Fold these 4 entries.
Entry 1:
Amino acid sequence: MKHDDVDQSASALFLEEDYRRSVAGDVPSRFLPGTSIEIVHEVARGIAFRHVLFDFDGTLSLIREGWPAVMVDMMTEEILATGTAETPAEISRLCHEFVMRLNGKQTIYQMIELAGEIRKRGGQPQDPLFYKEKYHDRLLEKIRHRREALRNGTARPDDYLIAGAFGILAAIRDLGLPMYLASGTDEKYVAEEAALLGLIPYFGGRVYGAIDDYRNFSKQMVIERILRENKVEGSALLGFGDGYVEIQNIKSVGGVAVAVASDEACRGGLADAWKRDRLIGVGADIVIPDFRESDALLAYLFRE
């Protein structure tokens, strides 16, 4: 994706919003018979889906599973360095709260929050990009063995993919629909890790991720570009994600949003309750724990 053709004056319109629940209370739903596919809002028959958007981490990839602990530990150290009288446990709880509250947005937003917490305690924070690079260095060290195992063939892509991922990607490809990968993780890492997982043949050059100038990238920008360049309405967009940003963005243009409430650590085939509630809260139409039942899901979505 070319980022330099974005209208600078309009870029502020695409800044990612904080989580804002738009669906209140208990929402009635049903499950497709014999499946774990939860229908929150019925999808009308005969929708002519033309384009399909996927988030990356937690939706398809498990390479970065466990990232919150790495981020929270780094942030806790930075805040404690201000000399605050708060205990490490108190700071860790604070960081965990805002890291998860901002989960789904580009990584830089969490680092902006960190800089603000340092400033509140009388510290002089570094540029948020400094903290983002420091976090990435630590995370890459933690997951180095995963990436190396994929690179040298001692691990299979399925070892680090959400269950059933290849199945649904192949099925959508066979339907002739172009797929797009859009992530809040830096684009260089998304492209590299998607290649390690064997996903590039499904997406081709349609892989988008965060850049240092975060004002000139967002998932909303990717969506708007898909619709504009292909001259289609938002109702032609089908999207999958485990973060609130992509679900919110897909719904804002009138698309159908499938929440992948993946339990990244256990991978037991059950929806993660926290993700499920969070994503229903921003309007997800369907909730699935993974892609193991993609045949039933696609049969429902593409029924005449």
Entry 2:
Amino acid sequence: MFRDRDHARAVIQNIAIDDADEEPISSEQVELLIEALAPQFWIARNDGSAIHRGMTRLGGGPDLPDGTVWPVRPAPPDAERTAADLEQHFDWIAKHIVRDLPFEFLAQIDLTEAATHPEHASALPHDGRLLFFWDGVVGLIQSGPAACRVIWDRTPAKELRRLAIPRALEELDAAYDPEGRFKKPYVYPERPMRLNPILTLPDRHTADMVTNGLLTALADDMRHENSYARLTAMDEGQFITDGLRGARLHRVLGPPIPDQDDPRFDAIVADGFPPAPWKGEQLTDAARRALDWQLLAQFNLGDLAQQDLTEGMVYFLIRKTDLAAHDFSRVHAVYQQT
């Protein structure tokens, strides 16, 4: 949302004080908002840039060492039963869930680029790149580590090669709807991107809000709720020239921007926490456990596909202990759609 703290103060002054719909917020509440700011990267368009090996980009094929095998999602152990359950309403998922399929490649992030902003990238490795793969079949109905692969590759850029798109993905892309009315992309358009360091306030529906009673009180106060909604609406400052909200939703680190509830809640349930609904102390406990997880990256599928009818968000979540150890083997993927 904000370029830096000075920019945040200026926008808060404009939205929550000068142009407040109801009562302006107090100076103490301004400091509360400043304290709640979290560093994050916006994966922004890199217009005019030539595509080179190892750079931050969306779509296409991944840059990996010569001879690397494209990661494959094996058919789930219960694939036949799941296919039978899905056949009536989701026949295309039923048809593909029983196959071993290549993961879809969503994006790669140049970690040396991130490292030029140490205050934002301190949790990340400082070299190589992270490559994000997701299962766009099983991942639509099941979350967790089986639905994704995240590869940390440290190969020097000059030794990288562009992996060829597996034929299976091209076949699936073409066969999704033979009549051509609808499209489910399995291969996404290649676009050069850049990491734009920003500061952001937590979305109203995140665990960060549950554990911050003063911030929740401010966001829920009828006198200030519209101001907080505008401060988290992503339509100010550096984003004002970007007409598509989806293009502003590609993020690295920081708090997630949920399409539904905080995707980290899904991760703690997978770890054995009782499923929602939660109230009172159990909700607080759920939020605290959720904060043991870190958003590694999130991608908006509509903008990724550059198609109006494609929708939803994919969240890649990692335990903070795993991130500190640079262990990306247990990343948890969550898909949400409004």
Entry 3:
Amino acid sequence: MDTPKRHRFRTLGMIVTAVVLAIAVGGVTILSFAVFSGTEAIQSLRTEVDDLHREVEGLKTQVEAAESADQDLATQVQGAALTLQDVYFEQLKKNDGLVPVWTDPRPGRRAYLTFDDGPSQNTPALLEALQAAKAKATFFVNGRPEWSSIYQRIVATGNKLGNHTYSHDYQKIYTSVPAFLADTDRLETFLATLGIPAPKVYRFPGGAKNEIAARIGGPDLTGKITAAMADRGYRFFEWNVAVGDGESKPNDTLYTSDEIRKAVAVQTRNKRIAVILLHDGPGHKATAKAVPGIIADLKRAGFSLEVLP
């Protein structure tokens, strides 16, 4: 009796084991299928993401190409504007260029002595030389309150004032159009305290085309300033004679009065109209010393000496 009973239990155990094994094998199969299916879905998503990345890169390329085309066009427009500005500024320096000086219909030769960066201790000697020769000049002045009486003397003796900004500080005046206007306004206000009306002519410190202004405020800054100042009734004047008295020679020595005088004579020799750049600021004693001889030379050459209109 015990043996058949044990046999039945053994048979039952084998059946249970077989069922468990079957379930286990089936589960593994199902799990394997699920894992396989999940991997396939992930791979599909990755493919879609890769496609989207490629589309985005393609769009970026198109946007960059459009921006590059816009930049090229802007560069061409700016280049054309600067070329016109260069032509205009260079034309001003020619012997018979633009109004109002160079198209003066009066016969004869005219010289316009202009002095920048003053007044200073050198200015009284210039005024005395001009008065003695019955000649006139234009002084493009900065703001120097310590020489207040000299501004009044310039005007009282029939000479003319021009606005050369109050500070003459390139780092300040060439940051923007409003910065330049504010500095010229400051000079106007200062002159008003001396009873002197605002000048209507001006000169850019360093000239209308100078590398410092272009580097600080952009290559078209002085062109924009010209338009803004014209709206205020101002006209700017360059020059067509520059003798280097505002600079050092290549060997770092200053020009002597004789060298300054000779340079003016050479550069005005073939000109009908001469706008002569000189300086009467601090440190320009040689210029003051040269001016009586310059005036004499110009008169011998048939020039009348006048103020800028």
Entry 4:
Amino acid sequence: MTSMPHQSRQLVARAVRHLRGTRWLVGVVTMFAMVAMVVMTMPGCGGTSEPDETTAPAEPAAPDWEPIDIGSTVGMRGLSTVGPAVVWISGQEGRFFHTGNAGDTWGSGQVPGMGAVDFRDVEAIDAKTAYLLSAGATARIYKTADGGHSWLKQYASDAPGVFFDGMAFWDPTHAIAFSDPVTGTFLVIGTDDGATWSPVPNRRLPMPVEAEAGFAGSGTNVAVRGEAAWIGTGGGAARVLHSADRGRTWTAQTTPIAAGEGAGIFSLAFWSDEHGVAVGGNFQQPDVTDGTAAWTSDGGSTWTTSATPPRGYRSCVAVVPGTPGPTLVAVGPTGSDISIDGGRTWAALSDTGFHAVAFPTSELGWAVGADGRVGRFRGTPAPGT
């Protein structure tokens, strides 16, 4: 039994003296009150007891996409980052958004006269300089060099069949953009000065198979690295068009990505000259997992189906820089998935749906989607978060 502290013994003695007085009843009440105080002060009782060591502390919440309000409800599919601070976003109604401080504040605007245009791709050079590419019958490329205060139209075509799906830059002055076939041949245009765009001669491009085209799901079915370029197709065939000389000549390789109406390759990402991944599926059946991801280890000459695929159609994939594997994140309308082995297997990351994703650093990611949805991911993503 735990011994009674000296101060507690004094309280009991005082209670006994009260009992010897004339106010006997009051003394009894006082005694019981003082005894109760003694009990409360004893170790292991009442308010002075130690915390219950069997109660486990609450686990901190796992990292997830943090909603960011940029003051718009338009659908957004264009996303480009430069380092940890600069983010450019593009979308419907000719809208664009940008930040130079990792999302603390945003600038926004609308390209004059382009209120009916959907800018499906944006390619950022720096905080002031960016290119916009529109999808649909009104094919346009615009450039700003002053943070969106003014825009210069660099390319325009209203020819039947022109429908640009994406573009990619090797550096600030060299880039290519890809359109669905026009009059039976693919349309690939390029720039060598960041100002003027010219088509690649048809004779240098593979012929499309019947109903083969591209998808402007995120502007990322075009990827470049080193001297190489890759373009993903869909519809009649899910192929990868490859150039080893910055778009001058091209070949085509088949992939196991799902093909058909609404299906194909929607996004490509390469982290070395040899290693890359393709994601896609059928946007009309977003929960179907078959044929949604494949990987290559020979520069795109051959492709292997991911052993464990993403959880459905995915419109964009991004490499998380500085991670082993490497780590990849793919997004679509039904959620985002993660691979830590270069696309061979995938696991759930989040149930929040997006159209495009980018990770400028290993611990900072951005994603955009429908109805003005913007997400920021802080911390290195991991399966099950």
